[in-house]
Amino acid sequence: MTILVIASQKGGVGKTTVAINLSYSLAVRGHKILLVDTDPQGSVGLSLSRGARERYGFYDAIAGIKTVEELIVPTRLAEFKLMTSGKSEIFSDDSVQGNGKRLDRVKNFFDILRGQGNDLVIVDTAAGIGGITSDILKEGDSVIIPQQSEPLGVRSIPQFLKKIVRIRREGAEVNVSGILMTMVNPHQRESVESESQLRSALPPGIMFQTSIPRDSVFLRASSLGVPVGLLSRNPVPAAVAFDQFAAELEIKLGLSNNIEKDNGVKGLLD
Ligand SMILES: Nc1ncnc2c1ncn2[C@@H]1O[C@H](COP(=O)(O)OP(=O)(O)OP(=O)(O)O)[C@@H](O)[C@H]1O
Ligand SMILES: [Mg+2]
């Protein structure tokens, strides 16, 4: 099982959108996914269900109020389960504060999930890489860094990568799965230029080949409470981009593609 953390220094770069749509695409491809929202704002839950504010979730597990098992919410896709962020106020209680203790609780939480038969746990985080996100990064296996394609946006990347180097020096095993360009607008020069600048400045392997286009369907999908892949029977381009990203990630993380395994390859005519 792989713990894949979606994190970025900057806010509003598309973390939650990536977490939801990537989880969906990977689940459709047959991987057992648990999407965990660790953003106290509860964006995953709010994007997918109206009752999310009242739900218990991640922070209630960390505070020891609920067991991990009772917090897992099924979706209409058998392979896709999620956990909302829950009532984070409880977590701000003094008894749970203090770095050492918080890290222990986060570690314990992921240890339980590691024994639960998921292929991937995908973790959405709040903007920034301090606080509990720093503990989550320490316990994760790999991190995806969504990066909005705008001129100023790319400046936060070196800072983020330095943070990963620092926590690896402290003994964490997390690696960078890659940087994913989001909100790319092919008709806007600044957007295209900031993507190509980053691609030429960084080692080629660190950036995903796939980039996510800027598209108003993401807003529509989130207002309807669905991943873009569920908007229509014929996939919209934004959904295709996430399917392509899921396929790229399968190769990068060495995940086997269950679709092929289940059906075998059949000729077109027989
Ligand atoms: N590719 C895209 N095209 C158009 N709009 C997008 C795209 N990705 C995200 N958005 C929109 O941009 C806004 C911010 O996206 P999102 O909430 O995913 O970012 P975030 O990084 O999770 O933000 P935060 O740091 O606040 O958690 C949302 O309104 C979302 O619908
Ligand atoms: Mg978010």
Quickly give the CATH architecture: 3-Layer(aba) Sandwich
Task: Give the low-pLDDT segments.
Answer: none
Shape: globular
Give the C-alpha Rg. 18 Å
Largest pleated sheet: 7 strands, mixed
Largest sheet, spatial ordering of strands: 3-4-2-5-1-6-7
- Classified by CATH, the class is Alpha Beta
Q: List the bound ligands.
A: adenosine-5'-triphosphate, magnesium ion
The CATH superfamily turns out to be P-loop containing nucleotide triphosphate hydrolases
Describe the secondary structure blueprint for this structure.
Layout: E1 2-6, H1 15-28, E2 33-37, H2 43-48, H3 58-62, E3 73-74, E4 80-83, H4 88-91, H5 99-114, E5 120-124, H6 131-139, E6 142-148, H7 156-169, E7 175-182, H8 189-201, H9 217-224, H10 237-253, H11 258-263
Parallel strand pairs: 1-5, 1-6, 2-4, 2-5, 6-7
Antiparallel strand pairs: 3-4
Helix pairs in contact: 1-10, 5-6
Bound molecules: adenosine-5'-triphosphate (ATP) and magnesium ion.
